[in-house]
Amino acid sequence: MSSIVKNFKYYFLGILFLGAVFVWYAVLAETRSGLKVAFLDVGQGDAIFVEAPNGNQVLIDGGPNKSVLRALSKQMPFYDRTVDGIILTHPHLDHYGGLVDVLDNYKINFETDSGNDNPESKGFDIYARKLEEEKAKRIFAKKGMRVNLDKGLYLDILLPVINKKGMSAHDEMVVARLIYGNNSFLLTGDMEDNLENYLLGFGGSLRSDVLKVGHHGSKTSTSENFLGAIRPSLAVISVGKNNKYGHPKKEIIDRLAKFEIPILRTNEKGTIIIKSDGEKIIVK
């Protein structure tokens, strides 16, 4: 009895802490509504955090390094240590580097990539080993695959068409269209104009409200024909400040301006958060 009295303050503090956690969880669950797509500020690289209304989360690419952890911590509650799935568009450092740290710090249930065996980076074996240790289900992306995230919310895989060994990383890019009700986001990774033309050749609508501009605004992407087919209401460029590549290129900025498409850039705005209720998109 005396030990209970002696340790009462610790029990009391523990109960208060647990109570605070449940309260905050209830508050967050109550305030979470609609779809959130956060284009994370990870410097020169890509990382896109998707959270469904039901709480399902997917991280598409992870930037070049552990800066993704700081960006993720601002989008997820501190007690949430699980990301349902990660999608790697292609095995280049500015897309997979930060995923190594994500695998170290979060539980991952599944991983999707193109199966590309030409990573063009000596450090990719670290990511592959971490993924194997995680024992996450690995799925090779292929055109026609659909990832259901919530009612009326899904990710359609548009590319690659085949999983072929020996292809360049950019030619076996995972390209996806995120659809929620009447809103859609085209997530292009580093897709270049040869794959843009390939996609256009399939026919069917690629119309999207938000376009993640390919390859950080490189001149090898975002052709006029492609923009004409997408007709986005908003373009997002994930790019680092004062990067050595000169991204985004002026001709791409001018091309987007020609089509009167508003541009948001992570090197200017930091993390860009877009929400959707299935009918309209709102930039937060």
Structure description:
- The chain has 284 residues and is an alpha/beta fold.
- The chain has one domain (32-283): Metallo-beta-lactamase, Chain A.
- Helices cover 31% and strands 25% of the residues.
- The protein has 9 helices and 15 strands.
- It has an 8-stranded mixed β-sheet, with helices on one face. Strands 7-8-9-10-11-12-13 form a 7-stranded mixed β-sheet.
- A hairpin with an 8-residue loop joins strand 1 and strand 2 (48-51).
- Helix 4 runs parallel beside helix 5 (124-134).
- The N and C termini lie far apart (54 Å).
- The model is unreliable at 25-30 (pLDDT under 50).
Round the mean pLDDT to the nearest integer and report it.
90
Structural classification: alpha/beta
Number of helices: 9
- The oligomerization state is single chain
Count of DSSP E strands?
15
Q: State the distance separating the first and last CA atoms.
A: 54 Å
Helix-strand string: HHEEEHEHEHEEEEEHEHEHEHEE
What CATH calls the topology is Metallo-beta-lactamase, Chain A
In what range is the share of β-strand residues?
25-35%
- Summarize the biggest pleated sheet: 8 strands, mixed
Q: Low-confidence spans: pLDDT under 50, at least 5 residues?
A: 25-30
